[in-house]
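Revision sheet: C-alpha cells.
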Amino acid sequence: MQDSLPWVEKYRPKGLLDIVGNGAAVAALKKWAASWENGVPEKRAVALTGKPGIGKTSAALALAADLGWGVIELNASDARNEEAIRRVAGAGAINETFRDDGAFIKASSGGRKLIILDEVDNVFGREDKGGVPAIVEMIRSTRQPVVLIANDYYGLTRRASSLKSLALEIKFQSVRAPTVEKVLHTVAVAEGVEASPDVLRTIAAGTHGDLRAALNDLEGVARGRRVVDAGALTSVGGRDDRSNAYTMVERVLHTFDVSAARKALRDLDEPPGFAILWLEENVPAAYRHPEDLSRAFYYLSRADVMLGRTVRRQYFGLWSYASDLMAGGVAVSKTERLHGWVRVQ
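Predicted:
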C-alpha cells in the first residue's frame, strides 16, 4: 500500500524538523503553538500563506504530530458551506475537543485538536454561501487551535477583513532550488533510483520553488526505473510560475486540444479534487449550448467517480484517469470555440 502512494505523500514531512526552506516560518508556528500551553491565547488562529507546494499543509500536520495533537482537516474536496463548517469544525471548537472518530470529549482527557482549514481562500460560490462568516465566527469562539491555509490571503481578507485581526499571518517562502535539489536526491536514493545530477538540477530549477511539483516531476520520470540519465531531460518541462486555478480554467475552456488541457491541469499542481470544483463552477457560465453542457458534465461526473474510487481503494494511480476525464473531456465537449474572455469564479 505504501508503494502505491504518490511520492509527495510517501515523503511528506513527519515533523517540523523535516520542513525545508522555511525556518523562520516554522519558528513562528512553534511560538504560536506554545501560546496554547496556558489556555486560549489572544490569537486563536494562524494563517499560513504563500504559493502552492511550499510546505504549508505539511507544516500544519507536522506541528500536530510533534505536539501529539489530533487533527480535524477540511479541504477543497469537502462541502465547505456554512452548515458543514459549523458542524465539523465549529461544534468541536466550541465544545472542548473530540476523538478522531468524531466523538466529543473533555480537553482534560483528550488534549488539543488542531483544526485545519486547507485552501481556505477557495471558499466561494453558491455552495459555499455563508462559509467565510462561519469561519470568522468559529475563530472567535474556538477553544482549540485553528490553522487557515491560503495561497491568496489578500483575496480572502478582502472578503473578511476581520481575519486580519483574528489570525496571525505566517508567510511561507518558495523553496530555493539548491534545497529542492537536495530533497530530490534524498528521495531518489530512498527509492533506489540513480538519478543524473543534471535531471535533478533541471527539475529543481524548473519548478520555481514548488517542492511538491518537483517531487511530482521526479516521480514522473523515475517511477519503475532504476537509472534516470540526462536523456530524461526531454520529458522534463518547465512550469509557468504564475499558473493558478483561474489560468487552468481559462485554458481548459478555450482549447480543443486534449494534451493542452491536461497540461493546464498539471501546471496547476493541485490534486484533481481541487480542480474539479473549479471546473464544475465555471463550465455552466462558459458553455451555452445544452448539448455541450451535458457532455461536459458527463465527463466531470465520470471523473468524480474515479476520485471516489481513489479514496475508497487508496490507489492514487486513478488520479490520472480523473484528470484526463475532467480536463480533456471538458475541452472537447464544446461544439465551437469560445470567443472573448470568460469570467472565471
